[in-house]
UniProtKB/TrEMBL annotation:
PANTHER family associated with the record: G-PROTEIN COUPLED RECEPTORS FAMILY 1 PROFILE DOMAIN-CONTAINING PROTEIN (PTHR23017:SF43), SERPENTINE RECEPTOR, CLASS X (PTHR23017)
Source organism: Caenorhabditis japonica
Entry protein name: 7TM GPCR serpentine receptor class x (Srx) domain-containing protein
SUPFAM superfamilies linked to this entry: Family A G protein-coupled receptor-like
UniProt entry tagged with the keyword Membrane: yes
Length: 251
């Protein structure tokens, strides 16, 4: 087995743990009808997308790297799919991504300026805007939660709400920090001739971020954690219902 294949094996534990964390959160929120606040709906949509992302990594990207003999089959299958969905971009401008076995990462095979611009700036700008919107929504939700807590400060449940505020802060800040570090790495070190760096700063890093966001949700969201561990419906405090106007955004 070649060195690049051995390095590709490091994706397996990250991808499968990411699938476990994210889909556990999706199932926990989906089966409990009382967990339908704006923030938990936002969490549901985001973890669902991350879970699908982990499935693609587990059953397409990782096998394509590890099992070189099956690469032609996977490439042919997804080339047909890509033609149906992205016919103009893929075949009109020849903007094709290939797996570079020399640097152990996916790269743009075309030197066409439009492809280069889209690869480096448009895709990055799209993800950056989504992250900025998610952070804005989280901050607005947190402000509304803190305002509601002021009215409940003199009640017995004030301590419970205070703890939920802290957990909410830990979850959103932890997930935001993961995204920020990921994009800082992308901007600061866009290219490298070292294959180890190329692999771990792109494929491995993207999978690890998606897995960490699911893990942080389980660790710091008490409602989701109780639903997963006990398998029972967890009543949703009224404090979160104040943020129903917030619309969920997916990264």
């Amino acid at each position: 087995m070649r060195e690049s294949q051995l390095i590709g094996l490091t994706l397996i534990p990250v991808c499968f743990s990411g699938m476990l964390f994210n889909w556990a959160v999706v199932v926990a929120i989906w089966r409990d009808k009382s967990m339908r606040s704006s923030f938990l709906v936002l969490t549901l949509v985001k973890t669902f997308c991350d879970g699908c992302y982990m499935i693609i990594y587990s059953f397409y990207i990782t096998p394509m790297i590890v099992f070189v003999k099956h690469t032609k089959f996977w490439v042919a299958f997804f080339a047909i799919y890509s033609f149906l969905v992205y016919a103009i971009v893929t075949y009109g401008f020849q903007c094709r991504y290939i797996y570079d076995s020399e640097y152990w990462t996916f790269t743009n095979a075309s030197t066409f300026p439009v492809c280069q611009f889209f690869s480096m700036y448009v895709d990055f700008a799209k993800n950056s805007i989504f992250v900025l919107i998610c952070v804005t929504v989280d901050v607005i939700t947190l402000i509304r939660v803190m305002k509601m807590r002021r009215f409940l400060r003199k009640q017995k449940r004030a301590e419970v709400y205070s703890k939920k505020d802290a957990d909410f802060m830990k979850q959103t800040c932890g997930q935001g920090l993961c995204y920020i570090l990921d994009y800082m790495w992308f901007v600061a070190f866009p290219e490298s001739s070292n294959p180890y760096y190329s692999f771990f700063s792109s494929l491995f890093c993207y999978a690890a971020v998606a897995a960490m966001t699911g893990l942080l949700t389980i660790l710091y969201n008490s409602d989701v954690k109780k639903s997963i561990l006990r398998g029972k419906k967890v009543p949703m405090p009224a404090i979160h219902s104040s943020a129903t106007a917030v619309f969920p955004v997916v990264r």
